[in-house]
Amino acid sequence: MRNGAEILKLGTLTLVWWCIIFGAVWAACYIVGILIPMALTSYESDAARMTAETCRALTPILSVLVFIPINAMFMVLFERRGLAIFTVRLGPNRVGPDGYLQTAADAVKLLFKEDITPRGADAFMFTLAPIVFFAPSIFGAMPLLAAVTNYHELFQIANLPTGIFFILAASSVPVVGIVMGGWASNNKYSLVGGLRSAAQAISYEIPLVLSLVTVCLMAGTLDVVQIAKQQSGGILNWNIFGGGALRGLDQAISLKFSSSAPALQELSKSSFEQVLKSVYLEPTAQALGLGAGQEGLAGIIAAFAVVLLIGSIWIAYGLYMTGACAEINRIPFDLPEAESELVSGYNTEYSGIKFAIFFLAEFTNLFIVASIAAVMFFGGGDCPVPAWLGTALGGPQIASVINQALTPLIEIKLVDPPTLFATIWVILKVYSIVFFAVLIRGTLPRFRIDQLMDFGWKRLIPLSLIVFVLVVYAREFVNVHVGT
Amino acid sequence: MLALSLVTRAKDSLYQICRGLKTVAMHTFREPITQVYPDKMPDTNIRGRLALAVNPETSEHLCISCRQCERVCPDKCIEITAHKSPETNKLELIEFKIDHGLCMFCGLCAEVCPTSCIINTNDFEMSEYSREALVYDLRKLTLSQEESRYYFDRKEIPLPKPKPAKAAPAAAGAAKPAAAGKPEEAKSESEAKVADAKAADAKDAKEVKQADEPEKQTAAPEEKEETENKEGSDKSKD
Amino acid sequence: MSETPAAKPPEEPKGLGLCGQFLKDHGIATTRLPDSCGVETIEIDGAHLEAAMKLLRGSSEIKLDYLVAISGVDSADTFDSVYQLWSYTNNNELIIKVRVKKTDVVEGQLPLVPSLARFWSAANWHERETYDLVGIRYYGHPYLRRILNVWDWDGHPLRRDYKQLVDALNDKASGSMR
Amino acid sequence: MATDTEVDLTPRLKTDEMLINMGPQHPATHGVLRLILTLDGEIVRHTEPILGHLHRAQEWQGQNRTWFQYQALIDRVDYLSGMFTSWAMARAAEVVDGCEVPERAEYLRVMVSEMNRITSHLLWLGTYLIDLGAMFGFPFYPFREREKLLELFEEIAGQRMMFNYIRIGGVMRNPKDAWLSKLKRFTEEFPDRVDEYEAIVTQNPIFLKRTKGVGILRKELGMDYGITGPSIRASGVNLDLRRTKPYSVYPKLKFDVPLNDRDGDTFDRYIFRIREMRESNEIIKQCLDMLPQGEISGKKQIAGLRVKAGEGFAAVESPRGTLGCYIISNGSDRAYRIKWRNPSFCNLSILPELLKNHPIADVMAIFGSIDVILPDVDR
């Protein structure tokens, strides 16, 4: 650990920036969503009630609008520092204390730069393109909000029953912005970049959607809040581990843990088997129409199905990440802005604030993609520690201590512990995924456009279909989330 | 069969990608190689800014106005003004200009200097707001005694022999204490250098002149001076 | 060590060298010049150049199939086009010179030398470069155009009589020592 | 990409070729090269390189500067391998002049040149991966090692790239013992670093896809165009001047010249450069062991340095190929004519052939793989 100091610095930086992001969003939400309505309740007029309602309704939008720019700023810094660590450098460490304000300064610089519209460009389209590119990421964030805040009442406004469908629809709009920008720039490189982006987004949308459909199929719902809820209860319940395929195991182990008294050992052993039997064997036997004597066969099939399910879902996750990387134009799929070929692709001609918006949207998209992965595969705001292990480690005591400490804050509704912990877990998960994306960015070269198409259509799409079919069959034999 | 080969290939590819990712990720635990430049000055050995050294022991100026550096400079960025002192019949340095905007830091001037007067310092921070400011004059070029000692030690240049005492009053140009005359006897090695160069110059002085013509046109009066200088330095050699 | 001292007083070499003999056998007359640092140097008439090159390149024993460089030289009274020939497979070396007398060059025109570019791709850019810098026109070249200087450059910079035009932009600024 | 089986749509659909100007200001042209590409869709049909944006009249300066002054300028011909340009001219001048070079100087020359070959290949490796799109992580690793070598150069020659170290008749300065031991340490750890690069790059499936079978250079074509260096060795032509026309002390050193047995593609050119780096490292090791004591210059380094009258051509094996210098001297202190035979210039001339019928995304993959350095092209 000769690099301990640097890693520590990155950790501190991350913590500080998280506090800044959270503080800002928190303050905005608290003031608009709780403080003002509370203050208004004393006036018993229609206007006051209306205002209070409007404030509440605006809270989710406001939170997203506050969150996205600050978060994007931090993500750029995070990526630069992360890459610096991988490449044995220091990274930006001059502006502000240890470079904390580097990207803030960059943002300010971009805002003050001259906003150039090249001659021959279609000025209207040229201006519209960044907006079209950026706006959908806000739409996409809306339904996720409820899922990642542990369905806090304030953020329920956009709780669509077809949440994931809406998110996917929103996330496929930005490509229109790219094509628009590429075409309006009146530059051959931009045009090629824009067209490439269109081709790429269309191709990689399919494996991306199919892998998410696989998850929805297991969950039996399109509602992201529902999907997040289903996975609560520790790491073994997450979709990435078969979406409840290990639930029986979980229950069985928890039984075993709960009965620590030696007298109950015998009982627990039998109940352990019983639970396993009831969760795995019986549904399988039922589905296959097997009789009482064929439990062994049913057990083998059930075990096989569980393994298959978990394997398939891991592949689906890989497909999702691949498709998502292509969707948001990150290495190794950054062909629309392939620097060595197309100078800078669709944003060659952009400068100043328009470029800043492109930049912002790129990182916001990365965040949204990562948070979709967190919600769909990694249990949303769920604590990864299973309840039985948590109990063994003294989790409830810690929780009560924290609750005790937070009581004054909870009373004035400043803190809602379920929401707080859910968001912390989501952020941790999302940034782990982002960190992995940074690692990929530091390693892989870029595809060529025809190879990219080949890879998308000839490899990923068939694979995602296979995974889909496998999951359809495997979930018949395993007691997944559905019906529990 | 096809499916199997596809699976194997996919597996191999994944393995190789993961190997690359692992190698990159393991770099996390290496010490960063960045040099934090303005906080910690690098210990360089570069041929940096040119400067004129003084004798580290007696602090007299080492330049003997022999114009070797001026002649050898590929960029013609050195300009020396000197005149022959009527009393001592020796060359006295009046002005020494180096345009660092033209200089390419090849170090040839430092190589040919018979008295190790002109040297490349380690300094590379010379940014200025105008090109004119990059033209360094004698005052700006001359190093202090301590700096000279530092560079003489560092570059392992043998110390020059001190000048006989009688030349000191002649050099007492009060405004420019550094602009002293040259030491009477250069070291034997540097003398050989001078002799060599002189011999070479004498042979094809005509040719050199021709090449220098455009530069000399502006400074026509200097032309005469140069021939004088040559005589002077020749005499001093004798 | 291929370093052999230069022939100090350029003594006249006796007889023909390996390549000169080979060319003579195939009916191409050459003149032997003083060796340049131990490498056989021959002069050849421009009219026979192409045939000689084809022979040297194609023959199995000599096989000078590596055209290292073509240089143009503005000599005292001739324009030389100098061909450095090596071999990829053996150690043969040859320098061929095509000399055009300055008195033969029509006033206001460039000296003419036949081009090799049509059957030897390596010659293409070298000839363009020589044309650009020394001003030897290689007739039969598919695309004889300036390569290093801009297309509207005046004169050929490596000629002895070339005068650099005064550049108004980079002329002496008052503060500079240039 | 189905160009051969294209359905004839011409009667109904008008298609046209598109001209694209790649460069001179383009992130991946390694300087200022301008390529006029005629594209049919994304397929390159015709390429015309426009050179000369970096023309600095090096040959003209050679005629108008003294030998001593010009030695300081020629590092700029190929700034990534300044030792080789110096060496080429020094050799040519020595051949013409007939002066002896002390053995210690020869060993030092070999040592610094092989170091320079490593730095040049390392820089190529980094920038090539940038060309292929690995923009952010990998390229820093070769540069890290290059930095170490540059520091050694700085210590021995006084500058990091414009060394002016190899002089006519010898070398400029004697290295200190500390320098030699630092170099020794570097040679010991360098193979591990190359293993690291290979772990990241060589078997990477995306890299393989981008490079295998792309830009195949046929042996005959390469010989027709006079291609040299690793590019032609990767196509199976045994042309390494260190072996075929041995100079300096190379005959005394043990090293392999890797040779391919088929027409090389972009990947082969990559792998040959990697191998060459390992070989260079071995050469440095041997030189460190064999370095004799003695003089370092056989000719006095004075301002009026002269070369005897005569003409001659000498070449060295630079990282990019045969770097030759043709000198005509009339015995004065400056050359009558200096002609540079630059490997980049000759290697670049094959680019239109290599690019033909490749998609535009391969332009940089191929252009990068022949390792051209623009100052060397334009001089």
How would you briefly describe this protein structure?
The complex is a heterotetramer of chains A (484), B (238), C (178) and D (379). Chain C contains 3 helices and 7 strands; from the N terminus they run αββαββββαβ.
Give keywords.
heterotetramer; D: 379 residues; alpha+beta; Cytochrome-c3 Hydrogenase, chain B; 15 helices; 8 strands
Question: What report would you give on this structure?
Answer:
- The complex is a heterotetramer of chains A (484), B (238), C (178) and D (379).
- Chain A has 484 residues and is an all-alpha fold.
- Chain A is built from 17 helices and no strands.
- The longest helix of chain A is centred in the N-terminal third of the chain and has 41 residues, at 46-86.
- Chain A starts with a helix and ends in a 7-residue tail after the last helix.
- The mean pLDDT of chain A is 81.
- Chain B has 238 residues and is mainly α.
- Among the domains of chain B are: 50-154, Alpha-Beta Plaits (2-Layer Sandwich); 177-231.
- In chain B, the strands form two sheets. Chain B has a three-stranded antiparallel beta sheet with strand order 2-3-5.
- Chain B is elongated, with a radius of gyration of 27 Å.
- Chain D is α+β, with helices and mostly antiparallel strands and 379 residues long.
- Chain D has a single domain (58-355), classed as Cytochrome-c3 Hydrogenase, chain B (Orthogonal Bundle).
- Chain D has helices at residues 58-64, 67-73, 82-97, 103-131, 140-157, 177-200, 205-211, 219-225, 230-233, 241-244, 266-290, 343-348, 351-355, 361-369, 374-378; strands spanning 18-22, 34-40, 43-50, 166-167, 170-171, 310-318, 321-329, 335-341.
- Chain D is globular.
- The two termini of chain D are 38 Å apart.
- Classes of the chains: A mainly alpha (484), B mainly alpha (238), C alpha/beta (178), D alpha+beta (379).
- Chains in contact: A-B, A-D, B-C, B-D, C-D.
- The A-B interface holds A 1-3, 6-7, 84-90, 439-440, 442-444, 459 and B 10, 17, 20-21, 24-25, 27-34, 36.
